[in-house]
Amino acid sequence: MRLTEILKNIDYQLLQGNLDHKIEALIYDSRKAVKNTVFIAMDGVYADGHQFINDAVEQGCQVIVLEKDICMQKGITYIKVSDTRSALAHMSCSFFSHPSHELTVIGVTGTVGKTTSALMIYSILKEAGKKVGVIGTNGVYINDFYEETHNTTPESYELNRIMRLMRFHNCDYCVMEVSSQAFKMHRVDGIDFDYGIFTNLSPDHIGPNEHASFEEYRDCKKQLFQLCKIGLFNLDDSHASEMMNQAACQIYTYSTLKEADLYAQHINLYQEPGHMGIRFETGGLLKDFYTLDMPGRFNVYNALVSLFICSQIGIDHADIKRALAHVHIAGRGEVIHVSDDYTVIIDYAHNGAAFESILNTVEEYKPNRVICVYGMPGKRSKVRRIESGEAIARHHAYAVLTADDPRDEKVSDIALEIIHAMGHLSNDHYTVVENRKEAIYYALDHALKNDVILILGKGHETHMVLENEVKVHYSDKESVESYRKDHKNA
Ligand SMILES: CC(=O)N[C@H]1[C@@H](OP(=O)(O)OP(=O)(O)OC[C@H]2O[C@@H](n3ccc(=O)[nH]c3=O)[C@H](O)[C@@H]2O)O[C@H](CO)[C@@H](O)[C@@H]1O[C@H](C)C(=O)N[C@@H](C)C(=O)N[C@H](CCC(=O)O)C(=O)O
Ligand SMILES: Nc1ncnc2c1ncn2[C@@H]1O[C@H](COP(=O)(O)OP(=O)(O)OP(=O)(O)O)[C@@H](O)[C@H]1O
């Protein structure tokens, strides 16, 4: 594509050189720069891309987009913009010919529930025969194609590339998680959102490399409702009215507690071997009865979101109902049948809010005991260690503390911090088994009739991060399945 075409939608100043270039890719990591690419220098958390401009030039790149003054080399084109992250986003939209304009884009934001809601919508649309893609923490799925993601919301260039790939696969719909960092880092600038969904909000991702304050975190998420045409808000969240404030979209609401545009009532839990689910009735825009084969009152929120979007899109109601009845999301309230005596659930709960919801929800099924197998990541926010320990104590649950991406920290040290946060809980309520597979075996070996074993924090993930960020293969699901196999053969 010609450089002038790529720059069409941004304000820039040509510092040196000319715009007569044919461009084959946009690059924001100098290590990937080659001939016929533009290098966009971005100031990051750990490094400043401007320091690598000469490396990019050395590797053959002849066009540089920057926001700071640097010493220019002869024969190279330098283009100055006020914000290179935003420029990359708009240039990427142009480079890939605005794929979001050709898709119905559904964006989901909020502290928890993004992955679950996005994948529920994706599953229902797919089952209804629609061509749909999804982008989020669990990766990119386009029909049968899969690609891993490094971020919940990929960098703008990747995002537009993926959306173009979706169009290549004839997708009409794109469901995507939109993280607060995505707004902060301009990853979704220029994306044409049709629907925006707000799940809930609680303090998270606040720290030196993420958000400066809760207000900044919240205001980043609010931006979705400036960009989308229709916004759907969880009326039960205490931040709902603040999130709706200044929204430029048409507003719809959902609730499980009060009347809203779409609301759930008469929520009933059910449990049978290998299944923990929920039945509910809806009022407002849709009046019907539904079954969801996933545990958790909170999943009714995710189901309401999916019902609203799929019915707005025009999916046949019987198809939605059928698909919802058997939707399962990897690592999100995933029930694995090991024994008729007790229930095993793998769940991605990894912060205070999610621990509270999963523990609350599981208690409603009136289990004998709740045993949580989990750990907390090394070199990451210590708040989550405290919040999780407090939640275990509040709910009088049992904890088998173990590894969860310990990085350069000792699993036993992290466990001690969690135990400290458990406060008054007596020491027969917890134990430490450092190897995660052994911890799962330990919990399952000690399970009693009607116990619920919650394996928390890693969800769908298939790796463990050790010292020096070295990743080794590890999966909770494989550990549980291996236990089941061993005990079948025993
Ligand atoms: C801390 C953080 O947010 N980092 C993100 C950021 O990296 P960065 O730009 O700060 O990277 P950097 O290492 O400082 O480098 C700055 C620039 O120099 C370039 N560089 C660097 C070295 C070199 O030799 N040559 C070179 O050109 C880099 O490519 C980069 O463009 O921009 C990258 C591209 O978009 C992201 O992949 C990366 O996410 C990291 C992996 C991350 O963990 N991010 C988290 C905080 C995040 O975004 N999380 C949200 C979910 C949480 C939420 O709900 O908000 C998410 O969407 O994933
Ligand atoms: N609507 C909800 N309300 C409260 N808790 C929820 C909700 N949906 C899911 N959860 C809980 O939060 C955990 C994380 O859910 P999910 O992965 O869907 O959220 P997320 O927003 O994608 O999180 P993250 O951005 O951290 O990846 C689940 O495993 C479950 O325990």
UniProtKB/TrEMBL annotation:
Q: In which pathway does it act?
A: Cell wall biogenesis; peptidoglycan biosynthesis
Q: Where does UDP-N-acetyl-alpha-D-muramoyl-L-alanyl-D-glutamate bind?
A: S30, N151, T152, T153, S179, R187
Q: Name one GO molecular function term.
A: acid-amino acid ligase activity
Alphabetically sorted, this entry's keywords are:
ATP-binding, Cell cycle, Cell division, Cell shape, Cell wall biogenesis/degradation, Cytoplasm, Ligase, Magnesium, Nucleotide-binding, Peptidoglycan synthesis
Offer one example of a GO biological process linked to this entry: cell division
Sites binding ATP sit at G110, T111, V112, G113, K114, T115, T116
Q: Which NCBIfam families match?
A: murE, PRK00139.1-4
Q: What is this protein called?
A: UDP-N-acetylmuramyl-tripeptide synthetase
Q: Per the UniProt entry, what species is this protein from, by scientific name?
A: Eggerthia catenaformis OT 569 = DSM 20559
Q: Which gene encodes it?
A: murE
